[in-house]
Amino acid sequence: ERLPALLAAMPKAELHIHIEGSLEPEMIFALAQRNGVALPYADVEALRRAYAFTDLQSFLDIYYAGASVLLYEQDFYDMARAYLLRAAQDNVVHAEIFFDPQTHTARGVAMETVVNGLYRATQDAQAELGTSSSLILCFLRHLSEEDAFATLEQAQPFLDRIIGVGLDSSEVGNPPEKFARVFARCGELGLHRVAHAGEEGPAAYIWSALDVLKVERIDHGVQAIQDPALMRRLAEERIALTVCPLSNLKLCVFPELAQHNIRQLLDAGLAATVNSDDPAYFGGYLNQNFTELFAAVPELTSQHAWQLAHNSFAASFVPDEQRRAWQ
Ligand code: ADE
Ligand code: ZN
């Protein structure tokens, strides 16, 4: 292994973590029991055996099934609390946390239940761990724009607890254009905007995330490599990519970690960052993403490590004053 001590010890921000993707199999079973929810898996081992993904959709099917055990405010609190404790061990000093409210409201869970549980965990983490964190509401792109508008309406009373919106779920066939109007409304409301683009989908979706949705960061974005003009734009405008190496490996975006293109992205001047995406499903939290990536790609140096940590703070949505204190 290379540089593991530096990679583990360096302070870092995590900008691409789905909180429902931090739900470990043990917690899924504990919550299922606590809430009386039946699961189509006999035990923790059987559930873990199902974590053999071939693409994004094969993962999403299991990820939404896992989230079905979340019913009460305390469930959301416990899930976020566990993630923030684990992240602190990896020297994550700031996290911008995605959540998927439609997964929960579709089951009759109130938006208030979701937001209150998650938000209380972020407040406690600040007080007890010194970890700052904030919440980004993601719209599910396999659902309609009308459904996204209804979700924004439900979130309206809680917008002081949400720093921005994102776009996730099944990418191919659900282009950014589908959400043009709801993202425009979010812009008027003063919310930060990000979107998953170019994970499995084409570079064209990255262009439209920037030009139509007006996003400030691209989640994943690794398919930008297919389009030299897009690469130049991302570099010139310092648009951050929140890259997730172990996710890309487990969802077969790259056949091997050694073939991951993050070094090419960095060397082309793009503001790439490293993130865990859904750590309970993809085999590791943030430091594991760093150490496995650096072990697999020998061209990555301590200079790249420093750049990645720097990029994570530079691309975060923290106020400039706090950012200056970190850098
Ligand atoms: N939801 C959770 N993880 C995701 C990913 N990697 N891509 C799209 N939607 C997601
Ligand atoms: Zn993601």
Automatic annotation (TrEMBL):
Domain Adenosine deaminase: 11-327
GO biological process: adenine catabolic process; hypoxanthine salvage; nucleotide metabolic process
Organism the protein comes from: Oryzisolibacter propanilivorax
Cofactor requirements of the protein: Zn(2+)
Swiss-Prot/TrEMBL keywords: Hydrolase, Metal-binding, Nucleotide metabolism, Zinc
EC number: 3.5.4.2
Protein origin, superkingdom: Bacteria
Recorded GO CC terms: cytosol
Lineage: Bacteria, Pseudomonadati, Pseudomonadota, Betaproteobacteria, Burkholderiales
SUPFAM superfamilies tied to this protein: Metallo-dependent hydrolases (SSF51556)
One Pfam family of this chain: A_deaminase
Catalytic activity, reaction form: adenine + H2O + H(+) = hypoxanthine + NH4(+)
Biological role stated in the UniProt entry: Catalyzes the hydrolytic deamination of adenine to hypoxanthine. Plays an important role in the purine salvage pathway and in nitrogen catabolism.
PANTHER family documented for this protein: ADENINE DEAMINASE
Record: residues binding substrate: 278
Gene Ontology molecular function terms on file: adenine deaminase activity; zinc ion binding
Protein name per UniProt: Adenine deaminase
Transmembrane segments: none
Residues with site note (Important for catalytic activity): 220
Residue positions binding Zn(2+): 16, 18, 196, 277
Positions annotated as active site in the UniProt record: 199 (proton donor)
Cofactor binding note of this UniProt entry: Binds 1 zinc ion per subunit.
